[in-house]
Amino acid sequence: MTTETGEVRTPEPDAPGIMSGMYLWVTIGACALVFLGAFESLAVTTVMPVVSADLGGQRLYALAFAGPLATGVIGMVAAGNWADRRGPTAPLHTAVAAFVAGLLIAGLAPSMEAFVAGRFVQGLGSGGMIVALYVVVARVYPQKRHPAIFAGFAAAWVVPSLIGPTVAAVVTDVWSWHWVFLGVVVLSLAALLMVVPALRGLSGGDVSAPWAFGRLGWAVLAALAVLALNLVGDVPGTGPVLAVAAVVVALIAVRPLAPRGVLRARRGLPTVILVRGLAAGAFIGTQVYLPYLLTDRYALTPTVAGLALTGGALAWSIASTVQGWLGARLPNMTALRIGTAFVLVGIAAVLATTVLQSGALVIAVTWIIAGAGMGLMIPRISALTLALSTPEEHGFNSSALTVADSFGSAMVLAVAGTLFAALATTTDPFTAVFSLSAVIAVAAVILVPRVSHPSARAEVAA
């Protein structure tokens, strides 16, 4: 048979499901690791005001959020290179160890400086962990089950958005904010133990592949640029200039971290990764400002405003499950076309509602459409990345995919923050921010047809 990307393959025999006996524990363990990483990234939003007050670290408040995103880029690239050389086992063990170490440092921190240092280590481990898990998927599961396991990963990211803030608040109120971090340590180790049996006997990578020290250097520079993008927007006077400079540096640094042609939208895998970054940036760039809009303009409480995001998160989870159940009956290209269109419709509806000053209920309903679009397309983009990669490229290309998520989101948020600060006293800053996200979503829709390529393999950067 001929795939939609032009590759000729023989039909694959029916394979056991991801929850069958041979895959049950590795599925549960891998999804649990993704869940715990997502929980920490969301739960900290709830406890940070308490942490900051307790440790007297208001001046480092923003850095506690930006730091893990920046160091995560380094972890992604390092784990990808290591996995290509030696297989996913050692990178996964090391990444989980770093994640746990970061949790311990943050949870036991006597000062804000120590807490931020723990967050840096935590982000390094979290970034490496997700890339190593992508390679585990490529080595353990048959290709036809990739959409299903990636749907599980997507659901593991969405569920914390529903329960993470509440659980973190309860733990902080009943015990202490320290246990939001320390309590995850044992769970992380237990999840890793579930995955370990599936890692035994896995073949290594290509030991002749060089250590990409140059690529790691670019990752460090990219991390610094991402960090700067999250910090310079509020600098009086020179903020926009510094933000533009950081964007330029980030774009230069990211080129060696992705397959050739990503920034030029070359057909095939480069466009797959670019669409991932654009979609993530457009979605996150809108979602971050929705609660702000609802509390500022509609005078809703933070709890009620958060319910608007809950609908989108549920739709994401349901759509991920549906596309996994449909499998090959829903072609990847169709899933990407529908998914990007849904994201654009949802963002455009939020923008229109903001301009027309319609009811808050309209925003909550339309955000469900955007969430469904993300749930439909994200697992298929992950599956396509592996399908368009040789086994030796799984680590590098999986790393590039997660880097695209981080860079896409960080850049859009940085530019949106600069726009919001610049227009806050002169016009409607929400309209400007949502317009930016809508333009980026349009770009994602336009580029989807370029995912299809007559060649099944994409050339990667040396």
Q: Could you explain how this protein is built, in words?
A:
This protein is an all-alpha fold and 462 residues long. Helix 3 runs antiparallel to helix 4. The N terminus and C terminus are likely disordered.
Explain the layout of strands and helices:
Layout: H1 24-55, H2 61-86, H3 89-107, H4 112-140, H5 146-174, H6 178-199, H7 213-229, H8 239-254, H9 269-287, H10 290-296, H11 302-326, H12 332-356, H13 360-387, H14 394-423, H15 429-447
Brief write-up:
It contains 15 helices and no strands.
Shape: globular
Provide the helix percentage. over 70%
Rg from Cα? 21 Å
Strand content: under 5%
Count up the helices: 15
Keywords:
462 residues; single chain; disordered C terminus; disordered N terminus; mainly alpha
